[in-house]
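G., the chain you wanted modeled:
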Amino acid sequence: MLRPSTILAAPVLLIGGAFLSLPAAAQDEGGDRVDTLIVYGDDECPESDGNSIIVCARMDEEERYRIPEVLRSSDDPAYESWVSRVKSFESVGKFGPLSCSPIGLGSELGCTPELIETAYAERAAGNNVRFSELIAAARAERLAEIDAEASATQARVEELERARLGAGTPPPAASSEPQVVDPADIPEAP
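Predicted structure as tokens:
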């Protein structure tokens, strides 16, 4: 037998689930879609269409069939270099001020410099492809094309207006409706 509280809770849960999916649906409609690809050697980067920006990072041809640099290392102690083994011996018995250990007065003060050094080491050893810079360059190139097309269209419209005024055609009467120009009436620029 179903209780009245169960019968009332089911529609409330269904309506609540519908509202939770609204932000995800709104995200699909925003901005340009950016596809990032890695191309090797002299391979061509695919052309982007009007709905997406394709950003290509170029790598050497010799890297095509190799394991990516990020995956080439291993945490197995057998592959650890002697330099890092000696560094681990240096930290044995390290405690006190600026040591980043739970032992000793002021030992927590050494954690921040250690984290900063680790971050810089990871950045230096990381992948050298900076997709954010490539995306910004692709967007700037796309905007330059749009600006060039707009200025060419503006120049053609101004030329038509000068030709019309030069022929003695009276200007059109001012109206409250916007004037619609058929693209077929605009001659191609030589």
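Residues 31-68+129-166 form one domain.

Shout if anything looks off.
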